Amino acid sequence: MDIRPTSDRLRETLFNVLTAGNPGALEGSIWLDLYAGTGAVSIEALSRGAARVYLVEHSAAAVKVIQENLKSLGIATGVKLIQKDVAKALAQLEGEADTFDFVFLDPPYRLEDAYRDTLHAIGDWALLKTTTIVIAEHEKKFDPGEELGKLKRFRKLQQGDAVLSFYRRAETQSD
């Protein structure tokens, strides 16, 4: 398996940043977790008040780990697990899901093109609101970019060898 779970420390930092100044910021939120791995980020989001999480993972072995994690924690509602390639899952979700408040993506670090391709696709996506925060976890030595299609980075947070890049849909004259 090519799973590299988000470290506990980085995950804690992520959620502290998202709730800074507004402890209820995650209450009722809807999350999309792409390249979900173990599902740790989505499980944390649920524990902090998210209403629903959608986990997208292509690997059957990783999906099994996610299912086991959900079962061991007694999580049976508010979760949709999709075992598909990210591009196919995004197309599927466009026809059946709500808009998302947060999108988290953490492809295997070696798949640098997956970052750019996914961020470009998400920027054009109908299920992204102007207030949606898109977070990409990546290696310090790799930068997915300041602007990717309609997404623009507004914050970059480094912790050890990992970085969290925070994006929003860029405002345009036609918005």
Descriptive report:
The protein contains 5 helices and 8 strands. By secondary structure, the protein is α/β, with parallel strands linked by helices. The chain has one domain: Vaccinia Virus protein VP39 (Rossmann fold, 3-Layer(aba) Sandwich). The protein has an 8-stranded mixed sheet with strand order 3-2-1-4-5-8-7-6. The protein is globular.
Topology overview:
Layout: H1 8-19, E1 30-34, H2 40-47, E2 52-56, H3 60-72, E3 79-82, H4 86-96, E4 100-105, H5 112-123, E5 128-139, E6 147-148, E7 151-159, E8 162-169
Parallel strand pairs: 1-2, 1-4, 2-3, 4-5
Antiparallel strand pairs: 5-8, 6-7, 7-8
Q: What are the defining features of this structure?
A:
alpha/beta; Rossmann fold
Strand content: 25-35%
Please trace the helix and strand order, writing H or E for each element: HEHEHEHEHEEEE
**Largest sheet entry:** 8 strands, mixed
CATH superfamily: Vaccinia Virus protein VP39
- Looking across the biggest beta sheet, what order are the strands in? 3-2-1-4-5-8-7-6
Low-confidence stretches: none
Q: How many separate domains?
A: 1
CATH class annotation: Alpha Beta
Radius of gyration: 15 Å
In round numbers, the mean pLDDT is 90
Distance between the termini: 42 Å
- The shape is globular
| Proper CATH architecture | 3-Layer(aba) Sandwich
Number of strands: 8
CATH topology: Rossmann fold
